[in-house]
Design goal:
elongated, alpha/beta, about 280 residues, single chain, 2 domains, Alpha/beta knot, seven-stranded parallel sheet
Length: about 280
């Protein structure tokens, strides 16, 4: 199953920090994490002691694959580990996600602060990962101690518990933003800005038609009304195309509908000789 935003012609993004799910409880949550990873081009999924095992068949697999919504390649390539130590053994840096203060005297960063640093170090050749704890309890203090930094989310402290896939999604978003600046696609190039000469010509035409129809009344207020009107258009930072479109629309309002072109009748298919008896 894929969503409306899926583009099968686009190159699939890969890389980023490893997403390490520690003792995840539900197969469906693992599937949703895979989907969140695919959204932002993360491709290294590691699982530490999933509570239900890692299903390769049956109902649990069906639920996980359905929740992945097309990101099943990440589930197929997921690596299983018996301990956090084994899962992070090849990494140069590890961040642990938690909503609670742990008193471990290590840097505590938001994803917006942590991911640009991680991106820079990955670009330099290092390997990094982010630990996510089980849904009910989160990471233990011993597991947090394995990390060199803590990543926490600026959430409502009265309700700080995030769904596992939501946490992965937020980290993935900041990872992609650190690489691309957050712009999902380029804005089409606009028409060049309208020159002052073009704007003044447009204002003169508009104001002459408004004067003709009695808009500037009382006359003593005309200067202020004229300034206000021009400032509306100045705030729009109009392009050449904007001015042409507005001017064309006003011309049509002033002159009325265009005359419909006369239809050209097709020549008759019978000749005068056909009417002879």
């Amino acid at each position: 199953m894929t969503g409306a935003g899926t583009n099968h012609t686009a190159k699939s993004l890969k890389g980023g920090p490893a997403v390490i799910l520690v003792r995840p409880q539900l197969a469906v949550n693992i599937g949703m994490c895979a989907r969140a990873m695919a959204n932002f081009g993360l491709s290294d999924l590691r699982l530490v002691n999933p509570r239900e095992g890692w299903p390769r068949s049956g109902a649990l697999k069906k639920g996980a694959y359905a929740a992945a919504a097309g990101a099943v390649h990440l589930l197929e390539s997921a690596k299983l580990f018996a301990s956090v130590e084994a899962a992070v053994a090849d990494l140069h840096g590890v961040a642990a996600t938690t909503a609670r203060e742990r008193g471990q005297l290590k840097p505590v960063l938001t994803p917006a602060e942590a991911l640009p640093e991680i991106a820079a170090r990955i670009a330099a050749g290092d390997k990094h990962g982010v630990l996510f704890g089980p849904e009910r309890t989160g990471l233990s203090n011993e597991e947090v101690a394995i990390a060199d930094r803590i990543v926490t989310f600026p959430v409502n402290r009265a309700y700080a518990s995030l769904n596992l896939a939501q946490a992965v999604l937020l980290v993935g978003y900041e990872w992609r933003k650190a690489l691309d600046g957050g712009a999902p696609f380029a804005v089409p190039e606009r028409s060049p800005p309208a020159s002052r000469e073009m704007l003044l010509s447009f204002f003169a035409y508009l104001e002459s038609e408004l004067e003709r129809t009695g808009f500037f009344r009382p006359l003593a207020k005309r200067p202020v009304m004229q300034q206000n009107l021009r400032n509306i258009f100045h705030r729009m930072n109009m392009t050449e195309q904007d001015v042409r479109t507005l001017r064309g629309g006003i011309v049509r309002l002033v002159e009325g509908p265009r005359a419909k072109p006369k239809r050209r009748h097709a020549p008759s298919s019978h000749s005068p000789s056909d009417d002879k008896g």
